Amino acid sequence: MVNPNLKAPDGPPSDVEGIKDRSNYLRGTLEEVMQDRISAGIPDDDNRLMKHHGSYLQDDRDLRNERQKQKLEPAYQFMLRLRLPGGVATPEQWLVVDDLAEKYGNGTLKLTTRQTFQMHGILKWNMKKTIQAIHSTMLDTIAACGDVNRNVMCISNPDQSEIHSEVYELAKMLSNDLLPRTRAYHEIWLDEEKVAGSPEVDEEVEPMYGPLYLPRKFKIGIAVPPSNDIDVFSQDLGFIAIVENGKLAGFNVAIGGGMGFSHGDKATYPQLSKVIGFVTPDKIYEVAEKVITIQRDYGNRSVRKNARFKYTVDRLGLETVMVELENRLGWKLDEARGFKFDTNGDRYGWVKGVRGKWHFTMFIEGGRVADFEGYKLKTALREIAKVHKGDFRLTANQNLIIGSVSTKDKAKIEALINEYGLTDGSRYSALRRGSMACVALPTCGLAMAEAERYLPVLVDKIEEIVDEAGLRNEEITIRMTGCPNGCARHALGEIGFIGKAVGKYNMYLGAAFDGSRLSKMYRENIGEEEILNELRAILPRYARERQDGEHFGDFVVRAGIIEATTDGTNFHD
Ligand code: SRM
Ligand code: SF4
């Protein structure tokens, strides 16, 4: 199977490769260390494995210094991420997750940029109970993190119902069929009995992944034009639905996207995937499987920061990867078909799908579901879940759709929406509706600056500029992350901020509104005052000089304010 003409990069395997290798298919000593009561944490090796089970050990960074002073171990706690293909959950599932966040988590839910739930603040002793309760509602956390295929995304807005449901079924299929086969998760968390003598041979345990799994995480998303809500070009593997005569003809296949990079390291960069051809719907599993095996065989297992598939594609060359894919498939992809995206944002408010069901997209700032002062969001959604007969759909922009409401039930749901003051975002500026921030502090161990807790405050101030410039209803995407890993897909925000240090950000401009062009750095290491000064100059100019229908990201490029990034490889230039 391995092509002797192609090579993975030389170099000793990274420490994580060793950990996976010794782990007996992701078991490690997790079972034992989770029972140990001496520390609320777990050793680093097991934490690396834990990711494959959908969880990370974190510590509350707000408490770090104080605990250090008191000579206490860090305030260890676990983050738990669910696997929720396409972001669809039933009301029963919502209630279970809501309850678990209350009982074992920090009382809030984070709706993530990959359409799933995260819970924070779970103590070690409550992890097993939490995962078992998740399992009891037919959900799991398998492969939500780790060096495997992650939660498969798909368009969330069901206003194109027929296509939407077909595409959703395919996302679910991909997510299920690309799961690791090891029984480690079932044994450790669900008390499944171990089979004596297992594991047998590699091929039987993990026929696709093998014992080392992938060199790095792998992400798949399915978009249905004209909506690019899932940012298909940011995925390792993207499928773009081609609809002909109202029917799903198939998908254009795009490979090699990813957002993360490290400050000051040009060998790392965000990249957009490239379209390589077209396949019919029955072929997408085969394509996904073969693409994954190419990354398995040729990805960089030595240097993790260069291990994503985007680097494999750029190193080997798109053409070479295509030929390799077609060799593995034993057939050729058809020529890519035409498509056009208009936005990577969400459409808010009520829409009626083609099956006559109603869907209400609401704005959830930073994806955080909590009870705030004067805004009982979590309670409201719980009350809705108690009577709702349709579904909930988590969007890729951290928002929520109360979906599949019958005309008969609409008034009841609307009454609750009004009672609790839930919003379709229309009370806010379009800028705020188009905002997205990663978790960052206090839970993310990699955060260099605030994001989720700060972006709303910054937007309050930018809104004054926007209002003065008469741009309140102008859709502009704004994204902030606490570090360059790009969890809120910063490089695809028309205005982007990436944390550098506490209170300091690099500012990016020039991404396309439809998610088809990356941004570029405009100013480095600036604080709030400088950010506002820059925007005070640029936004009114946009208001005055833009052409008809011209989006902000296109304007700043045309006006020469920033140079266009034409490929990830010139992102830093
Ligand atoms: Fe992410 C790591 C949160 C979507 C790129 N991401 C992390 C960790 C687990 C930090 C860590 O490794 O210790 C963060 C946990 C924070 C916390 O306290 O919860 C974290 N990522 C998130 C979420 C929750 C952000 C959010 O606010 O919604 C998103 C969860 C997605 C999900 O449900 O699966 C999230 N992360 C993304 C995305 C967006 C996407 O996938 O569409 C990206 C950019 C796309 C990509 O992968 O290229 C992303 N996260 C990263 C990276 C950089 C990976 C890279 O190879 O470049 C890291 C760091 C790493 O893997 O070493 C990371
Ligand atoms: Fe953490 Fe950085 Fe991801 Fe934000 S972008 S959640 S700071 S890893």
TrEMBL record:
Siroheme binds at residue 487. It is an enzyme of class 1 (oxidoreductase). It comes from the Bacteria. It holds the Pfam family NIR_SIR_ferr. GO terms for biological process: cysteine biosynthetic process; hydrogen sulfide biosynthetic process; sulfate assimilation. Its cofactor is [4Fe-4S] cluster; siroheme. Binds 1 [4Fe-4S] cluster per subunit. Binds 1 siroheme per subunit. Residues 172-333 form the Nitrite/sulphite reductase 4Fe-4S domain. GO terms for cellular component: sulfite reductase complex (NADPH). SUPFAM superfamilies: Nitrite and sulphite reductase 4Fe-4S domain-like, Nitrite/Sulfite reductase N-terminal domain-like. It catalyses: hydrogen sulfide + 3 NADP(+) + 3 H2O = sulfite + 3 NADPH + 4 H(+). Residues 74-134, 356-419 form the Nitrite/Sulfite reductase ferredoxin-like domain. Keywords: 4Fe-4S, Amino-acid biosynthesis, Cysteine biosynthesis, Heme, Iron, Iron-sulfur, Metal-binding, NADP, Oxidoreductase. Its EC number is 1.8.1.2. PROSITE patterns: NIR_SIR. [4Fe-4S] cluster binds at residues 438, 444, 483, 487. GO terms for molecular function: 4 iron, 4 sulfur cluster binding; heme binding; metal ion binding; NADP binding; sulfite reductase (ferredoxin) activity; sulfite reductase (NADPH) activity. Residues 1-20 are annotated as: Disordered. Pathway: Sulfur metabolism; hydrogen sulfide biosynthesis; hydrogen sulfide from sulfite (NADPH route): step 1/1. Belongs to the nitrite and sulfite reductase 4Fe-4S domain family. Alpha(8)-beta(8). The alpha component is a flavoprotein, the beta component is a hemoprotein. NCBIfam families: CysI (TIGR02041), PRK13504.1 (NF010029). Component of the sulfite reductase complex that catalyzes the 6-electron reduction of sulfite to sulfide. This is one of several activities required for the biosynthesis of L-cysteine from sulfate. This is Sulfite reductase [NADPH] hemoprotein beta-component. It comes from Cytobacillus firmus.
